[in-house]
Please model this.
Amino acid sequence: MQNIWENLPKPFLILAPMEGVTDAIFRQVIAKAGRPDLFYTEFTNVSSFASEKGRHDALDRLKIAPTDPPIIAQIWGKNPDHFSELAHALDKMGFSGVDINMGCPDRHVNRAGGGAAMIKTPELAVECIKRAKEATNLPVSVKTRLGFTYLKEYKDWLTLLLKQDIAAITVHLRTRKEMSKVTAHYELIPEIIKLRNEIAPNTKLIINGDIKTREEAEQLYQKYPDLDGFMIGRGVFANPYCFTNHTSTREELMELLNLHLNLFDKACEENYHSFEPLKHFFKIYLNNFPGASNLRAKLMETHSTKEVREILAQEN
Model:
């Protein structure tokens, strides 16, 4: 099986996995606007997949849209047996790789021992990586933060991960404690590159944090050509065309909104989806043009895609 990480351009761009955002519907919208080189799923709890009660939700998160490939399945948890079970299942689902989330700062995830909490249980983290690698033919990668509480944790933690012979490592340049409240620590990029080059030169190194556009990623690459890729997260909220360096027009944004509505309705035909979370996406499409805030306020009062379309028809 080909290793997807060896076939990507340099530098490559990835849409960061974001809970409640980067589902199969939204990924199709971004693919229309201008897709990144690689998609990730929202993260899936390995223990949910291992349970009869949670498997339906887990499989829903792991749906692959026609425009997704190549796509990486991101998983999280703390049970090595469950990592093994899900990694084995992913082999047959059409994914190009498996990524283990060891950086999510969500307190509920951390209380369950997953995400960034894995930084505090390094032996368990190593075991989960090992079991996932043994169970699948897909390349296994890790997404993490610099540390849980202190910046100084980064050297020992990243060294440990790089020694696990993983295909790629994505480093969000903040600690869990910092959340997104401080500027990403770009000053540590040279030291992180040095660690990767000394310990695991074949492991792809991806940087995440405060990168909002293709142009910014390209500028960072010019400064640090040893980096392999960049992950854009919140930048997609300011511009869904962020992977293209294209400045969107009002008409293009409205077209993407209508596509999102159509895909949402189609998904509801197969499986019920609550309407309320859809409202979180309105700010992505309704910004940077005259009257956008007023239109967004109207749409926030709606209760169905039908009502949304009626208001949009009046505006046009």
